[in-house]
Design a protein that fits this description.
23 helices, 14 strands, five-stranded antiparallel beta sheet, three-stranded antiparallel beta sheet, 735 residues
Length: 735
């Protein structure tokens, strides 16, 4: 090999070694810098951790070791009456119920308003209005698709369960932390039929998705100089890993194996920057301390990084000097094992924080136990005094004159049926003296009740939220009074709900929106949207909300302009939800409604449908009138037949009466004139002929009247039939 080639290779090797040493030095410097920065945040948080330990002791009803020692030394009661647990559990349950409804999301996505669309909508040009309407529908459809995508991510990540844990942390310790989006590797299992064997085979598919994590507040170390997460420049998260978990880190993409191997070789016991509080937490909850607790502290840093530091960690970066780099670094002790650029272009930190009550000077807030620290102390002290006083006043204090009596068994302890021997030096009635300690139970219990009321006042959590009895007059026990109390109790939770909307819901959903805009391949879900946090919308009690929704529906229906600008389907959905009914189970989906609208549009036009309905109504009216005329004719026919029958009966009655009269006249005439029967018949024959002639004339007159009446009735019936025929043909003739 030529000498100059050897020299060149030596120079390249030396340059490569020098570059490697420089990069290792940069990594070591970065690890030292981050380790020191993390230690500063840990030291700045010591006071907070002491307060959290006190909160946990108070929540679990435990005294400190010093307090128990003092009580034991003084011989007083060590009982603990726990008001804090009920208050904290009520706050967690109520806040979770309001922020995480079972039948709805506590967030939404809607298109950002565009001034150009407003101008087109108000334009007199119909084509411009149609274009604005079409663009708005497309934007709303895109927003719904984006909302579905994020909702699917939340469902996969079990958002509701992790959000409840965050709410529990914030109510107990004052601060809850939710982290996301984080890249998670999920396995999906699917069964398919093997074409060769014909058997069902399970396939496991791995996919990277955006997920969520609930971060334990004990492991969260943000920029302690900041008052809010928006002001925080960086943040740290600690994870305690065993040896197996440390080795599994080598499977992560981008891990520097040499650095990870160096950690396991040079630091077998693990380097701890912060104090592990788990032994103290176990002691508070009554769990024995675990002796074998060898863990490594894996620190995760998010914040600004230098370009050289990223290059040293193997990260490809742009060479633009104006670019500010924001990334993530994993390190153990002073050893950097991985670095990466922040996946979000906004450079936003992945943590979101919720405070039960915010501290204007810190990221960490105050929880329920801290707010009721003094009332809890007063209540516990008053209850111990009640127990001590009850023990002292339960029986008398005895004084015995030993010169007057002597116990037979030599034991001076009192017990039933004990025998005493009198010495005779002092009268026996003066040998014993009993002194009763006064009972102060009433006064002490008043102090305890005052502490309970003070706890309600200082926490703004009335006893009504704990499901206990309602104090107040008779009006408070009515349905209206109860509703007013519930509404008033909701008011005190508005600040906590607003803190959750501002601290968790809005920033987390916004980061997931940025994630999908940057990395999702589906172009149909991308657009300019705004995030809507709706946690505060459920603050109004269901009954009050229902009344307001119904009133809103009436107002919108009474005004055509309001009706045109009202989303009726959405309004009706909210009314159904206010009745605590699942809207999905009783309402049609939007696609079904649109299909039915289209089918209805393909049918007869509305004006033709209206005319057809009017014609049907007119025909029904004519049929009713025809039936009425038929019934009237039937009544007239029945009346006529009744009159004919009456006339026939009257005629028969007159004929019978006339015949009876003739027989009587014949008998009387025969008696008076003493005429023979033949003579009488001859004389009466003439009279009967006259009578018969007269009856014929009368019958002829009656027949004439009947014929006239029948003719008139026939004419009226013919006229009715003609009118009915005209009406059946659609002609109206009532003249």
């Amino acid at each position: 090999m030529p000498e100059h080639a050897t020299v060149e290779m030596t120079d390249e090797t030396e340059a490569l070694e020098a570059e490697t040493q420089r990069l290792e030095l940069l990594l070591s410097t970065l690890g030292s810098k981050l380790s020191q920065l993390a230690g500063e945040q840990v030291s700045a948080r010591q006071q907070l951790e002491t307060r959290w330990l006190n909160d946990l002791r108070q929540y679990h009803g435990e005294y400190t070791a010093d307090e128990l020692a003092r009580m034991k030394e003084s011989g007083t009661s060590s009982i603990y009456v726990n008001l804090t647990r009920n208050k904290t559990r009520a706050a967690i349950a109520r806040l979770s119920d309001m922020l995480l409804p079972n039948d709805d999301r506590n967030w939404g996505i809607k298109p950002t308003p565009e001034p150009q669309l407003s101008a087109l909508s108000n334009s007199p040009d119909q084509a411009a209005k149609a274009e604005a309407r079409q663009r708005r529908e497309i934007a709303e459809q895109t927003a719904r698709l984006m909302q579905t995508a994020i909702d699917d991510d939340f469902t996969e990540a079990r958002y509701n369960g992790k959000a409840r844990d965050v709410i529990g942390d914030s109510c107990l310790l004052g601060t809850g932390v939710l982290k996301g989006p984080v890249v998670v590797n999920r396995q999906r299992r699917a069964w398919r039929r093997d074409e060769q064997s014909g058997l069902q085979v399970m396939e496991i598919q791995e996919e990277f998705r955006a997920g969520l994590e609930r971060v334990d507040v004990w492991d969260f170390f943000p920029d302690m100089s900041a008052a809010t997460m928006e002001e925080a420049e960086f943040g740290f998260e600690r994870k305690l890993l065993n040896k197996k978990q440390m080795r599994e880190l080598s499977n992560l993409p981008g891990v520097i194996d040499a650095q990870l191997r160096k950690v396991l070789e040079t630091d077998p016991d693990g380097t701890h920057i912060s104090r592990d509080r788990r032994d103290e937490l176990r002691h508070i909850t009554g769990v024995d301390t675990v002796v074998n607790n060898k863990r490594w502290e894996l620190w995760e840093y998010w914040g600004p990084l230098d370009k050289e530091e990223l290059i040293a960690a193997g990260v490809e970066v742009d060479e633009d000097p104006l670019t500010e780099y924001n990334g993530c670094v994993l390190f153990v002790g002073e050893h950097v094992i991985k670095a990466a650029i922040n996946p979000l272009d906004s450079g936003e930190l992945p943590w979101s924080v919720h405070n039960w009550e915010e501290d204007p000077a810190s990221i960490f807030g105050f929880g329920v136990p801290f707010l009721m620290r003094n009332p809890q102390r007063v209540a516990a002290t008053a209850w111990r005094m009640i127990m001590d006083n009850a023990g002292l006043s339960a029986g008398p204090q005895l004084a015995v004159d030993k010169s007057a009596v002597t116990p037979q068994d030599g034991d001076w302890k009192l017990r039933p049926r004990k025998v005493w021997i009198s010495t005779g030096k002092v009268p026996l009635n003066q040998a014993f003296y009993a002194y009763n300690i006064p009972s102060n139970q009433g006064d002490l219990y008043s102090i305890f009740q005052a502490a309970q009321q003070l706890a309600d006042t200082e926490t703004n959590l009335p006893i009504l939220l704990q499901g206990e009895g309602v104090s107040g007059g008779p009006g408070a026990r009515t349905a209206t009074g109860m509703q007013m109390l519930m509404n008033n109790s909701n008011i005190v939770l508005r600040s906590a709900v607003k803190n959750y909307d501002d601290g968790i819901t809005e920033p987390v959903v916004r980061r997931f929106y940025d994630w999908h805009m940057a990395y999702d391949e589906r172009e149909e879900i991308k657009g300019d949207f705004s995030i809507v946090a709706r946690g505060s919308s459920v603050l109004i009690a269901r009954q009050e909300q229902q009344e307001k929704l119904l009133a809103l529906a009436q107002i919108a229906a009474s005004n055509p302009e309001f009706a045109q600008s009202t989303e009726w389907q959405g309004l009706y959905r909210e009314i159904v939800r206010s009745m605590s009914v699942s809207a999905d189970s009783v309402l049609k989906d939007e696609e079904t409604v649109e299909q039915e609208k289209q089918q209805a549009g393909q049918q007869m036009p509305p004006d033709m449908q209206l005319k057809q309905m009017e014609l049907q109504l007119k025909q029904q009216e004519q049929q009713l009138k025809s039936q009425e005329m038929q019934m009237r004719a039937q009544r007239e026919q029945a009346d006529y037949q009744l009159r004919v029958q009456e006339q026939q009966f009257e005629q028969q009655y007159r004929a019978a009466e006339l015949q009876s009269k003739q027989e009587r006249d014949r008998a009387e005439l025969a008696l008076k004139q003493n005429l023979t029967l033949a003579e009488l018949e001859a004389k009466l024959g003439l009279e009967s002929q006259k009578l018969e002639l007269k009856m014929r004339e009368t019958s002829a007159k009656l027949q004439t009247q009947r014929d006239t009446t029948a003719a008139e009735l026939t004419d009226r019936q013919n006229e009715r039939r003609a009118r009915q025929a005209n009406m059946e043909q659609g002609f109206d003739s009532y003249g």
